[in-house]
């Protein structure tokens, strides 16, 4: 898992489906709050987490010493939204953990995430 804590970190990534999905999320946030100067990642209450094949989606630890969370448990996680990128390559999952915001998870739409979780994310992204 890779953790990104600012827009400059996102912009410095090589081109990839993850980077394009993150840039789209940043653009939407800036569009919703026009006229305000802010860093979507650093100032909105949560980092961006890029999950890769080999990461255990049922035991994600966001910070050292933190309790693992199960990203696949859609019922208990109460995600604010789940989007599928325009190219359908990346799921963008936002977990609002409080008034200050929360983390966003970016997961490739690939078989390694498991068919059941993938179907659940697809359904949630169409709500």
Jot down its keywords:
5-stranded mixed beta sheet, alpha+beta, 31% helix, 127 residues
Tell me what you see in this structure.
The two termini are 27 Å apart. The chain is of the alpha+beta class. The protein has helices at 7-11, 17-32, 40-43, 74-77, 115-125, and strands spanning 2-4, 48-51, 81-84, 90-94, 104-108. The chain has one domain (2-125).
Poorly predicted spans: none
Termini separation: 27 Å
Structural domain tally: 1
Largest sheet: 5 strands, mixed
| Strand residues, percent | 15-25%
Helix-strand makeup class: alpha+beta
Radius of gyration: 14 Å
Mean pLDDT: 87
Order of secondary-structure elements: EHHHEHEEEH
Helix-strand layout with pairing:
Elements: E1 2-4, H1 7-11, H2 17-32, H3 40-43, E2 48-51, H4 74-77, E3 81-84, E4 90-94, E5 104-108, H5 115-125
Parallel strand pairs: 2-5
Antiparallel strand pairs: 1-2, 3-4, 4-5
In brief, what are we looking at here?
By secondary structure, the chain is an alpha+beta fold. Helix content is 31%, strand content 17%. It has one domain.
């Amino acid at each position: 898992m890779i953790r990104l804590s600012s827009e400059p970190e996102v912009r410095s990534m090589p081109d990839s489906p993850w980077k394009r999905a993150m840039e789209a999320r940043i653009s939407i946030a800036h569009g919703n709050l026009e006229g305000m100067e802010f860093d979507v990642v650093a100032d909105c209450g949560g980092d961006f987490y890029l999950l890769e094949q080999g990461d255990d989606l049922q035991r994600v630890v966001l910070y050292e010493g933190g309790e693992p969370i199960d990203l696949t448990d859609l019922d208990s996680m109460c995600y604010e939204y789940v989007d599928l990128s325009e190219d359908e390559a990346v799921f963008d999952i936002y977990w609002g953990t409080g008034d200050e915001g929360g983390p966003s998870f970016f997961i490739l739409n690939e078989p390694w995430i498991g068919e059941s979780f993938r179907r659940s994310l697809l359904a949630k992204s169409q709500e």
